[in-house]
Amino acid sequence: MGLVGPNGAGKTTLLKLASGQLEPTEGAITVLGGRPAAGPAQLARVGFVAQDTPVYAGLSVADHLRLGERLNPRWDAALARDRIARLGLDPAHRAGRLSGGQRAQLALTLGLAKRPELLILDEPVASLDPLARREFLQGLMEATVEHEFSVVLSSHLVSDLERVCDFLIVLVDSRVQVAGEVERLLATHHRLTGPRREPDRLPGDQHVVSARHTARQSTYVVRTDGPIHDPAWTVTPLALEDLVLAYMDKRTEDRRVALEVRR
To answer: Which residues form the ABC transporter domain (predicted)?
Structure first.
C-alpha cells in the first residue's frame, strides 16, 4: 500500500501512530487487530524503517544482525545472513562507512529479518539515487512475494509507488482524499477537455476532483464509474502522478475558495 501526500500532510504522524511510537491524543488506532505497541507480541508483528534509514554508525553490519537477533523474538538469522551476503556487504564494515544505498539496504534487512506481518516504511528511498532506489524497491518486492507480509510505503516519488504498490492512499491536510486499488483508481479517473462548462452542468455521476478554466475552455479531472458519452469532451486517461496531483490541487483550490468566502 502506497501512502502519498505533500509535506505536512500527516504521513509520518500516521505511521508513527501505527507503529506505536506516538499515542493518539483523541480516538483510537488498531493495527492487525490490536493496539500498537500494546506488548512484546504486538511489537513483534510490526516492523518499521524510518525516513533516515537509521543504523548505528559505530556498529558493524554483523553487530546490527546480532542486535536484531537479541531484540526480536521472531528473528530470522538465516534470512539476514543470506541477504547481507547477496547484497555484497562486508559484515565487518561499520555502518558509518557504508553508502546511503547500503545503509538503506541494511535497515531493510533488519526490518525483513524481524519477520513482521506488517512492514511500515516511511520515505525509505527519499535520499537515494535512482539506481539505489531501484535496488531497494526490487529487494522489497522480492521479499514481499517470498515471505508474504503486508507493506505500507510512504513516498513523495509517485513513480516508485506506481511500480510496486497495489493500493494507494492520498493524504492531504490529515484527511484521506482518495483510497483504492491502483488499477481501479486509474480506470475510474479521466481528464475531460472541451468548451468552457461550469461543474453544475456535468452529469451527477461525474465527481469533480479538480478543474481549470480559461475564457473558452474547461479542463476537469473527474471520477466516475460509468462511460463518458458527451462528444463535446476530449477524454484522456490519467497517469498515477496526474491523479495524485489532481487531489492535491483540489485541496489547494478548496482552501482558496474558503479563504475568499471568509473575506
So the answer is: 1-198
Q: What pLDDT does 111 receive?
A: 93
The range of the structural domain enclosing residue 229 comes to 186-262
* 125 and 51 assigned to the same domain: yes
Which 8-state DSSP code applies to residue 116?
Answer: -
- Tally of domains in the chain: 2
| Same-domain pairing of 43 and 141 | yes
**What is the model's pLDDT at position 259?**
42
Q: Within its chain, how far is the Cα of 156 from the centroid?
A: 8
Give the dihedral sign, CA 86/87/88/93. Answer: negative
Decide if 176 is inside a domain: no
Query: What residue type is assigned to position 71 of the chain?
Result: L
Domain's final residue, options 131, 165, 199: 165
Question: Quick check: helix, strand or coil at residue 108?
Answer: helix
**Both 143 and 111 in a single domain?**
yes
C-alpha cell recorded at residue 22: 506516538
- 210 within domain boundaries: yes
Alpha-carbon gap, residue 46 to 64, rounded angstroms: 18
Phi, psi of 176 (to 5 degrees): -75, 120
| CB-based contacts of 94, cutoff 8 Å, min separation 6 | 57, 58, 59, 60
From the list 137, 138, 228, 243, the residue with the least C-alpha distance to 184 is: 243
What pLDDT, in 10s, does the model give residues 103-149? Answer: 989 999 999 999 999 999 999 888 788 888 888 899 899 999 888 99
**98: number of Cβ within 10 Å:** 18
Cα–Cα distance measured from residue 118 to residue 115, given in angstroms and rounded to the nearest whole number: 9
